[in-house]
Design goal:
mainly beta, elongated, 10 strands, 1 helix
Length: about 170
């Protein structure tokens, strides 16, 4: 009886070893993940912004993937007309040169800039007192981007009001 248990153990061990070799031989190398980006918005006091919080989340971005997009609705809460300015300051600079942010107004691109250049950047939008306007926001990796693999960046995306009649 003892000999049959020993034989069964040897056979099962050999089968397990062969199965392990066969399964590892066919496994493809793991793919490196693309970039992960999260744009975060909030009200400024002069402007109501909707939605607030994480409004655009892009996962596994690569230069060959389509842009991820969302819409921000901006309302002028002041008694005077205001021009809009975008200020995006990522928590880490990992994608400053490779991530492109596009802003559209009524389907027309009014801003297309690398993330690192979006520091107090004026956009050609003027809102009258009480006016509300939806703006499209999209992110994509530029063609030829490198070093983005596995990067994960949170970006406070602030729309600021600048008095237009001053």
């Amino acid at each position: 009886m003892r000999r049959s248990w020993l034989s069964a153990g040897v056979v099962l061990g050999a089968v397990g070893a062969v199965a392990a070799l066969l399964t590892t031989a066919d496994v493809a190398p793991s793919r490196v993940p693309g970039a992960n980006v999260r744009l975060i918005s909030g009200p400024t006091g002069e402007l109501a912004v909707s939605p607030t919080g994480s409004f655009l989340v892009a996962t596994d971005l690569e230069p060959t993937t389509a842009a991820a997009d969302s819409t921000l609705t901006i309302k002028n809460q002041t008694a005077h007309p205001v021009r809009l300015r975008v200020d995006a300051r990522p928590v880490t600079p990992d994608l400053d040169h490779d991530l492109v942010v596009d802003v559209t107004d009524h389907g027309e691109t009014i801003l297309s800039e690398r993330l690192g250049a979006l520091r107090a950047h004026d956009i050609p939008v003027v809102l009258a007192s009480g006016e509300t306007r939806p703006l499209g926001v999209a992110v994509r990796l530029r063609t030829g981007a490198s070093g983005f693999e596995g990067a994960s960046v949170d970006v406070p995306f602030v729309i600021e009001a600048v008095r237009a009649d001053a």
